[in-house]
Specification:
Elements: H1 9-23, H2 31-37, E1 40-44, H3 60-69, E2 74-76, E3 83-85, E4 88-93, E5 99-104, H4 118-129, H5 147-151, E6 162-166, E7 169-173, H6 181-184, H7 195-200, E8 223-229, E9 233-238, E10 252-256, H8 261-269, H9 281-289, E11 295-308, H10 318-326, H11 330-337, E12 343-344, H12 367-376, E13 388-393, H13 398-413, E14 417-422, H14 424-432, E15 438-444, H15 451-454, H16 471-482, H17 487-501, E16 504-515, E17 520-521, E18 537-538
Parallel strand pairs: 1-10, 13-14, 13-15
Antiparallel strand pairs: 2-3, 4-5, 5-7, 6-7, 8-9, 9-10, 11-15, 11-16, 12-16, 17-18
Helix pairs in contact: 10-12, 16-17
Length: 540
């Protein structure tokens, strides 16, 4: 063995020590610290966005980005969720609640400097309702006069109750009063897009246009699209043409698609993120026990559930669906897997939703009744039950829940259900095409009203991916808007039908757990988990 050459090592170490004493040795700045200096917020955003077209997106991660790039006539207050001026500086409503008149911001500009006009909103609302686009949230606009008939191809676009009086004035006529209409106008389905930009990059009334790419996309929000690199990041920069730009302090936002919760939490601790999308369940207990000031755990108006493809036997039988629902121990899932971070669900609609009262017979855990129903359906002790699969997308949360439910169905019903884990994109496609037996699903409210939950199961709603249709259920939702009886009564009865027919299995109601660095301020809290990024800033 050769002798160690130490003569060149100690002098170097000694020299380094002298330099540290003389000039000071500071640790390297983390990516979040460097970004803070430049006014850039780095956000963990869950999955990679499916698209950035506000009229076709359906996911939470896409919505966060869309709310940075676009602005509706109305925006929701980050604390109270009250309607506030957005692209419209003011509005008036007729006494009968059927006529809305909006005055647009005098300084409203697109990110390319062009003026935002009432005609842009008239075009965009028509586009969102055009059947060829296939907007899943189109039904949210059905209170607009003739909107449903136009969507169904029964009336021309000219019949829509939408009119640009002049460049700065928009009128919208409704078929019926809708107490949630202003809140709906804050949703991406009602965001404006530029007709000329869409026409330049494809058919405005079909999907797949190139207008949403960086360099092509023109929005009217507080930020403009700078870069979209799939599976890497979506970066937006402050839009200096935005009407309220002087009050926007962030210079930009970087949205990172990190589906792995453990990886996201490690990135946060390493100083690579300002805000996470979630907290791993196995880490949550430690953050709670140490009262870590970076943890936020807030009520969130959302539900986690499983849906059935009711067009496939034996799931076309309500007895089979109810048996599978009754065999799920929601309390055990919440306690053991979720570490009590979320609330076990016995209804689809969460408590705390306005105008909602729990039905008389909520979903329950009753293995004996589940076995009896399965036997009545022709599968005593699970004999003869066909092979089915449970679809879910990759996530640290979805896998253990699916494994637990799989075990419960085997233990209590003696049925074998295969687990099918796919990527986010494949999951969305399979649900869209109804290419599943049972699938994981979640719904977070767009506005605080039972209708926003229950409408997902109306027979003609594009978001109803179960194939289930019930005329009594549909009638109750319709009557909730026109009947003199309290709306809560109609919603309660509709929820009972939903639980009795069981096109879904409620699993739990969300609480929102995430991590925020202390220098981030203006990150408001509300039950919809919606916040205007224009209000977010860094403390000095």
């Amino acid at each position: 063995m050769k002798p160690m050459r130490t003569g060149t090592i100690f002098p170097a170490v000694f020299l380094g020590a002298l330099l540290c004493l003389s000039v000071g040795c500071a640790p390297r700045e983390t990516p979040a610290e460097l970004a803070t200096k430049h006014g850039i917020l780095i956000v963990g955003n869950g999955a990679d966005p499916e698209d950035l077209d506000p009229h076709i997106i359906t996911g939470v991660s896409e919505t966060r980005i869309a709310q940075a790039l676009f602005e509706g006539l109305v925006m929701l207050d980050g604390k109270t969720l009250e309607p506030r001026p957005g692209a419209a500086a003011s509005w008036s409503i007729s006494d009968d609640g059927l006529a809305y008149r909006f005055a647009l911001q005098p300084e409203g500009r697109w990110s390319n400097g062009g003026p935002v006009r009432a005609q842009d909103f008239a075009f965009s609302l028509r586009r969102a309702l055009t059947p060829t686009l296939g907007a899943k949230y189109a039904a949210m606009l059905f209170s607009v006069k003739n909107a449903r008939a136009f969507y169904e191809g029964k009336l021309p676009a000219e019949s829509l109750g939408i009119r640009a009086v002049d460049d700065r004035t928009l009128e919208i006529a409704l078929e019926r009063p809708d107490p949630m209409f202003l809140a709906i106008l804050a949703h991406p389905i009602a965001f404006p897009v530029r007709a000329d930009i869409l026409e330049k990059h494809g058919d405005p009334f079909k999907r797949g246009g190139r207008w949403t790419r960086a360099g092509n996309l023109v929005g009217n929000g507080p930020f403009a699209l700078k870069r979209w690199s799939v599976n890497d990041a979506v970066e937006v920069a402050r839009n200096d043409f935005y009407w309220d730009s002087p009050h926007v302090e962030l210079m930009g936002v970087r949205f990172l698609p990190i589906a792995d919760q453990a990886a996201e939490e490690r990135a946060f601790r390493a100083g690579q993120l300002h805000v996470t999308d979630s907290v791993p369940l196995n880490k949550l207990e430690n953050y709670l026990s140490t009262n870590d000031h970076r943890l936020r755990l807030n009520p969130w108006l959302g539900s986690y559930y499983y849906i059935f493809n009711t067009l496939r036997p034996p799931l076309d039988d309500a007895k089979v669906r109810r048996a599978l629902s009754l065999a799920v121990d929601r309390e055990a899932i919440a306690r053991v897997i979720l570490k009590d971070a979320h609330t076990p669900a016995t209804t689809f609609i969460p408590s705390g939703t306005a105008d909602f009262s729990s039905p008389e017979s909520p979903a329950a855990f009753d293995p004996a009744k589940a076995r009896a129903l399965l036997a009545e359906a022709g599968y005593p002790d699970g004999n003869g039950f066909p092979s089915l699969s449970l679809l879910y997308n990759t996530s640290d949360m979805h896998r253990p829940i699916a494994e637990a439910v799989q075990a419960m169905w085997k233990r209590h019903l003696n049925v074998d259900i295969r687990l099918l884990n796919v990527s986010w994109g494949a999951y969305l496609s399979m649900r869209q095409e109804r290419d599943f037996d049972i699938a994981r699903a979640s719904w977070v409210a767009d506005f605080n009203d039972p209708s926003n939950f229950l409408e997902n199961f109306q027979g003609d709603n594009p978001l109803n991916r179960t194939g289930w249709k019930n005329d009594a259920f549909d009638a109750l939702l319709k009557n909730a808007t026109v009947s003199p009886k309290p709306r809560a009564d109609h919603f309660q009865r509709a929820e009972q039908i939903l639980l009795d027919e069981a096109p879904l299995i409620p699993i739990f109601h969300y609480n929102r757990a995430f991590l925020v660095r202390p220098e981030v301020t203006g990150w408001d809290t509300n039950i919809l988990d919606q916040r205007p990024l224009k209000n977010v800033r860094f403390s000095k």
